[in-house]
Amino acid sequence: MIDFRSDTVTAPTKAMRAAMANAEVGDDVYGDDPTVNALEAMSAERFGFDNALFTSSGTQANLLALMSHCERGDEYLCGQQAHNYKFEGGGAAVLGSIQPQPLINQADGSLLLADIAAAIKPDDVHFARTRLLSLENTIGGKILPQSYLASAQALAFEHGLKIHLDGARVANAAVAQNIEISDITQYFDSVSICLSKGLCAPVGSILLGDPLFIKKARRWRKMLGGGMRQAGILAAAAQLAITEQVERLAEDHDNAAYLARELAQLDVFEVDLSLVQTNMVFAKVRENYDVKAMVNQLREKGILVTENTTLRLVLHSDISRKDIQYFITSLKSILK
Ligand SMILES: *Cc1c(COP(=O)(O)O)cnc(C)c1O
Questions:
Q1: Which of 194, 195, 196, 278 should be mutated for ligand 1, with most atoms under 8 A from CB?
Q2: CA–CA gap between residue 336 and residue 332 (Å, rounded)
Q3: Ligand 1 centre from 265 Cα, in Å?
Q4: pTM (2 decimals)?
Q5: Residue 91 contacts by C-beta under 8 Å, 6 or more apart in sequence?
Q6: Does 168 contact ligand 1 (Cβ within 6 A)?
Q7: Cis peptide before 59, with omega less than 30 degrees from 0?
Q8: Which of 110, 147, 171, 212 is spaced 20 to 30 A from 322 at the CA atom?
């Protein structure tokens, strides 16, 4: 199957399988897993932080970040479209007693600085305590400009807020701008990075921060059942995600641009090419067109797409230029 549903579907590479088979391991809850320790040390170094923590998922990394920055009765500011508001089961509220204060995401994915400033609550018993600003980059495949990150950081600092980045796809943002991941992460007090999306690791994310923050996060991780024992098996693949898969993302971005241009030529779709900045293409289907039938016919041809009035197509290492050409040919024959 050619699977456009997400970059989470990528299988580990051959090199990852070999590294996993040969990984030196120990009990990571005791701090004894050399492969996990090496991954955490390498991540902290590369991404410009004092400490790092290997987590079971991006959702867990974000939850640990929220629970480590905020206490019961605190709140975090984030986008209405933020993954850690909309797509993580309300974990911050359920498990952290932390209130989200969502703000409108602009078309480019950013939050207006004026909206952020206006949402910061005064010190008053009526209000939750505003503690944290949480941004996402990339968001819906779009890149937040570096100058925006600097302004957001300054605003957070001015108001005594911490600033977190959900950087699930921060590697895509860095590669697309031809800068280092640390050029982006430098603006944040904490960052979560998914290694199991475009970077091809089978499982796992990295959470970055200062020693006290990571100490708190490690405690929450254990409480949430995230102490993973011989996790070096997973960390071995995660290391290769960071050292061998980052630059390759450029191919996914080229493929996304190619796919977007091809789809834009078909009457049934509307594609805003300016929003295709990394590995995602959003194609709005013309009203009254039977999307369900199209998705079913595509499946019969070996192509998986999530059914929606706007199709989200995600490029990754298991989709080649040839696969895209086959997809376009198949679409044309279905649309005939
Ligand atoms: C996928 C994703 C996550 C969560 O990662 P999981 O490993 O799927 O839990 C968090 N934030 C963003 C922006 C994501 O795309």
A1: 194
A2: 6
A3: 31
A4: 0.97
A5: 59, 62, 63, 66, 84
A6: yes
A7: no
A8: 171
